[in-house]
Fold this sequence. Notes:
Elements: H1 2-11, E1 15-20, E2 25-27, E3 29-34, E4 37-42, E5 47-52, E6 55-58, E7 63-66, E8 68-70, E9 73-78, E10 83-90, E11 93-98, E12 103-111
Antiparallel strand pairs: 1-2, 1-12, 3-4, 4-5, 5-6, 6-7, 8-9, 9-10, 10-11, 11-12
Amino acid sequence: MIAAATFAGLSHEKVAGLYDHAVGKDLRIAAEVKDGVLQGFDGDRNTAFGGRLPEIHDKGDNAFITFEAEGTVAKGYDRGSDTHYEAHLTQGIVQVYDHAQSAWFAYDIQDSDAAQSYHRD
Length: 121
């Protein structure tokens, strides 16, 4: 969810799916931002997420997440898991650092206009 929100929030482009490098599979997740409002749906968890930035509400976990964006970096705090995150956007790839796990996770973002391609150059 954070990867999709980061891409949509920073690039102002739609997300049609993600490829999760850690598990080696496509994730059914979509997101877009219009007029400062994030709307998203996580098909793997069958739940919506969104809200007026800088707040995101994850309806599946009933948790609020802060989302502070600057340039190609988003940072925030997930009140549900009580942890911070940092996400970097580079050429259609979002790398998320989860402070609770002390680990980086990489996601390719699927282009909504080309269902089988990714934004990478």
